[in-house]
């Protein structure tokens, strides 16, 4: 007899109930092994002779009229997600990996008494089952297989959650395999992520970019201001850092003549975790010779709009909460210092005395950042006064020099660099630069960062002699950008970061 699905949240399921169901299912496994001693695998055969898939059957026969018969025999397999055993006719719903379903009808007339009884006694919710028979439409219009032959393809030892109850967020991220079984949105997010990555690669290919891979284990961290994870190599008898950014290696590729280069891969930052941050995350970085941060902003807008269209069919996306958000058109570009000055009601420039910035922060209750410097305080004030008012996608242009050690100084504005951050949905989605390619100035910037590190700033960069040596061989004027793939999914779907990552890190 089919068991009853347990409540959606594992925390609500009495442990003794799960134990009892598992014991019953293990006994069925033993029976299958004994009865199929001549079949390799017993309750877990090495293969089953399917001839098609559930999605393919739905595509071909999904519009059959109620009661129609096709005369076509098909053999499919799927997970049992619903079962009803009634006398001489049993019904089961089989689900494919993409969530599509078909009904299996197991009747006494077609399979015989012994096979029907075995179905009732052995098949449970969650089992993978193989069925073969005629493709028909039931009297209620449900696309079905009128089963002539069946077999268990994989016996489930633990019960499924209730298919009609919502898993809690914690249960979803801890047991994503169950989330994928029971929730359409979980499967749709995996598909959306795949479409986004494919779209990004297609856009880059159309622009003549090459995709490369750079090291995740590095002898020193660099390319971003972040606290790294540290590990140990026994072979090299040395501490190594998990990559916080691929930037310094991708720029070496540009020095080597790969004028348009990108990478999609994992980064690791030993920092806090919240709705927009994960210690491990997917990152896109791209660099193009003979362009600047304006050209890279154009590229980034195209990448995101193409990705949105790949998922949603247009640049207008609908988030998980039903909000409609427009990613189309030309995006605004505003000055960090100019927008901050307007919001504060007085001019703020790179020359504004530090004490005056502190006074503004204290008056507004803005917490001073650790190891405060002029630029960090300007950025904190901008987030306090301006960030929350951004509704449309917006490039925030021209950042403080002292917070951007890898960026070229602005060509006409003293004290700032040619850098933008792209804000969508109220969070930073991407950042772009006119790259600093002068090795002498880069060394000076690294030296200033080293001083911050010596004062205890764990996010400050170190002097990277190998990178400097590459720059000394000549890097062409270039633009570069970095964008979190997880955050791009957030912008398109409206989900939190743990929902966009298939298997997020949890305690």
CATH topology of the largest domain: BirA Bifunctional Protein, domain 2
Into which percentage range does the β-strand content fall? Answer: 25-35%
Task: Tell me the number of helical segments per DSSP (H or I, 4 or more residues long).
Answer: 16
Helical fraction: 25-40%
Q: How many beta-strand segments? A: 18
CATH class call of the largest domain: Alpha Beta
Label the structural class: alpha+beta
Name the CATH superfamily classification of the largest domain: Bira Bifunctional Protein, Domain 2
Q: State the strand order across the main sheet.
A: 6-10-11-18-17-16-15-14
- Main beta sheet: strand number and arrangement? 8 strands, mixed
Q: Which word captures the global form?
A: elongated
Alpha-carbon distance between the two ends: 38 Å
Oligomeric status: single chain
How many discrete domains? 2
List unreliable stretches of 5+ residues: 1-12
Radius of gyration: 29 Å
Arithmetic mean of pLDDT: 92
Return the CATH architecture of the largest domain: 2-Layer Sandwich
Subunit structure: Homodimer.
Pfam families: tRNA-synt_2, tRNA_anti-codon
Family: Belongs to the class-II aminoacyl-tRNA synthetase family.
Subcellular location: Cytoplasm
Report on this model:
Homodimer. Keywords: Aminoacyl-tRNA synthetase, ATP-binding, Cytoplasm, Ligase, Magnesium, Metal-binding, Nucleotide-binding, Protein biosynthesis. With 507 residues, this protein is α+β, with helices and mostly antiparallel strands. It folds into 2 domains: 15-154, Nucleic acid-binding proteins (OB fold (Dihydrolipoamide Acetyltransferase, E2P), Beta Barrel), CATH 2.40.50; 182-331 and 392-500, Bira Bifunctional Protein, Domain 2 (BirA Bifunctional Protein, domain 2). 35% of the residues lie in helices and 25% in strands. It contains 16 helices and 18 strands. It has helices at 15-35, 54-61, 108-111, 113-122, 169-174, 176-182, 184-206, 247-255, 293-312, 336-344, 354-364, 374-385, 439-454, 465-471, 485-493, 497-500; strands spanning 69-86, 89-95, 101-107, 128-137, 143-154, 210-211, 217-218, 230-233, 238-242, 260-268, 280-289, 316-318, 324-326, 332-335, 394-400, 416-424, 427-434, 478-484. The strands form 4 sheets. The chain has an 8-stranded mixed β-sheet with strand order 6-10-11-18-17-16-15-14, sandwiched between helices. The longest helix has 23 residues, at 184-206. It is elongated, with a radius of gyration of 29 Å. The model is unreliable at 1-12 (pLDDT under 50).
């Amino acid at each position: 007899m089919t068991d009853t699905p347990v409540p959606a949240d594992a925390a609500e399921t009495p442990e003794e109930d799960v134990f009892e169901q598992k014991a019953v299912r293990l006994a069925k496994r033993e029976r299958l092994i004994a009865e199929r001693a001549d079949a390799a695998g017993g309750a877990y055969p090495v293969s089953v002779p399917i001839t098609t898939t559930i999605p393919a059957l739905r595509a071909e026969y999904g519009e059959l009229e109620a009661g129609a018969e096709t005369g076509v025999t098909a053999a499919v397999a799927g997970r049992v997600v619903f079962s009803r055993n009634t006398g001489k006719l049993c019904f089961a719903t089989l689900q494919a990996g993409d969530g599509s379903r078909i009904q299996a009808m197991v009747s006494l007339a077609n399979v015989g008494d012994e096979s029907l009884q075995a179905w009732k006694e052995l098949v449970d919710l969650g089992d993978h089952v193989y069925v073969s028979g005629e493709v028909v439409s039931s009297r209620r219009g449900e696309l079905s297989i009128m089963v002539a032959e069946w077999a268990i393809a994989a016996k489930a030892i633990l019960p499924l959650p209730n298919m009609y109850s919502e898993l809690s967020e914690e249960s979803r991220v801890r047991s994503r395999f169950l989330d994928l079984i029971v929730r359409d949105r979980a499967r749709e997010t995996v598909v959306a992520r795949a479409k986004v990555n494919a779209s990004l690669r297609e856009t880059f290919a159309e622009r003549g970019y090459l995709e490369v891979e750079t090291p995740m284990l590095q002898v020193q961290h660099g390319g971003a201001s972040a606290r790294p994870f540290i590990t140990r190599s026994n072979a090299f008898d040395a501490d190594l850092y998990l990559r916080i950014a691929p930037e310094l290696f991708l720029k070496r590729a540009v020095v080597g003549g790969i004028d348009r280069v990108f990478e999609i891969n994992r980064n690791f930052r030993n920092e806090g975790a919240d709705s927009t941050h994960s210690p491990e995350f997917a990152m896109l970085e791209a660099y193009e010779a003979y362009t600047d941060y304006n050209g890279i902003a154009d590229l980034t807008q195209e990448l995101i709009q193409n990705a949105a269209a790949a998922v949603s069919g247009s640049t207008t996306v609908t988030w998980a909460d039903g909000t409609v958000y427009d990613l189309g058109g030309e995006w605004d570009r505003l000055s960090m210092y100019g927008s901050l000055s307007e919001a504060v009601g007085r001019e703020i420039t790179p020359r504004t005395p530090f004490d005056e910035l502190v006074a503004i922060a204290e008056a507004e209750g803005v917490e001073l950042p650790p190891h405060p410097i002029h630029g960090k305080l300007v950025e904190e004030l901008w987030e306090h006064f301006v960030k929350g008012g951004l509704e449309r996608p917006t490039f925030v242009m021209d950042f403080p020099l002292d917070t951007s050690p890898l960026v070229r100084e602005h060509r006409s504005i003293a004290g700032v660099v040619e850098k933008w951050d792209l804000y969508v949905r109220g969070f930073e989605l991407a950042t772009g630069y006119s790259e600093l390619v002068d090795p002498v100035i880069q060394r000076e910037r690294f030296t200033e960062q080293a001083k911050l590190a010596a004062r205890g700033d764990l996010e400050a960069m170190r002097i990277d002699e190998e990178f400097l040596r590459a720059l000394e061989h000549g890097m062409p004027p270039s633009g570069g950008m970095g964008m979190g793939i997880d955050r791009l999914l957030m912008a398109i779907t409206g989900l939190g970061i743990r929902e966009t990552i298939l298997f997020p890190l949890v305690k």
